Amino acid sequence: MFNGILIEKNEQGYRAGCTSLDEAQLPAGDVQVRVEYSTLNYKDGLAITGKGPVVRAFPMVPGIDLAGIVEHSTHPTFKAGDAVLLNGWGVGEKHWGGLAQKARLDGNWLIPQPAGLTSRQTMAVGTAGYTAMLAVIALERNGVTPAKGRVLVTGANGGVGGFAIAFLARLGYQVVASTGRQEEAAHLRRLGAVDVIDRAQLSAPGRPLAKEQWAAAIDSVGSHTLANICAGLQYQGTVAACGLAQGMELPASVAPFILRGVTLAGVDSVMRPLADRLEAWQRIATLVDGELLASISREIALGETIAAAAALLEGKIRGRIIVDVNR
Known about the structure:
This protein is of the alpha/beta class and 327 residues long. It has two domains: 2-117 and 292-324, Medium-chain alcohol dehydrogenases, catalytic domain (Quinone Oxidoreductase, Chain A, domain 1), CATH 3.90.180.10; 126-266, Rossmann fold (3-Layer(aba) Sandwich), CATH 3.40.50.720. The protein contains ten helices and 15 strands. The strands form three sheets. Strands 3, 4, 5, 6, 7, 14 and 15 form a seven-stranded mixed β-sheet that branches. It has a six-stranded parallel β-sheet with strand order 10-9-8-11-12-13, with helices on both faces. The chain has a two-stranded antiparallel sheet with strand order 1-2. Helix 10 (305-313) links the parallel strand 14 (297-301) and strand 15 (320-324).
């Protein structure tokens, strides 16, 4: 038996609770992992509260991230005792995820724990930091360098935004942070932002073209915010889009694309191929340290996860939540 968060949906309604589970309930997979740490992401918050159609099968253990030690494996890459990491692949949505003390998984979804990082540190980074690094790489591949000018980061107080600021700053970029929580401006500057703007400057309907302000951007907000970013990018600027906190729609004009050569680069972290995952995590391992991870994350116990999920969706949590599934 082991403990986990279980989401159920039946004639009594939708509910999530911390409960005792049996190994016999675990889904099929060729690698069984003793989970050490997981995380609480925005998608996990939607799944646990039922406020978004995230879960595709019931009952479900949520948790799109996990890190732990292989207990059993018939997969050729992994053996008992290996430290492994997982992000995405529909885990916590279609396949039982990381918010439990055990997980049985497809070994093709796993990567080895990055050299120099512990299980806890990888979960301090989690999907949020991994996504932020994929977005940074997308900008680099489109020719964005520190010399090109300032880079805007929206949703700056979220996990993706915080890591995007820190990574870009440590790579020599001048970062402008956009947030609706101006009381967090000092924190964002400590992460590396040179300027902090109010998200209200970007969140309302805007013009097809605006003043050229940024060489590039990483956006986790979407909707009017993303449209206004595109309108305000410099000639041949790039925005890496990786979220939809404001909305899924994109009420934009083609003007920035055909008059300024702007590029809109989509960043998916869920189904990313192995080579991209390894590259991103290797880059992350060179940029993070204990001080950064401590400033951008905090730890909770498994039993605190459900209450924290509600607080996360209400915008009451800054940065990353690490879940110690064994306490």
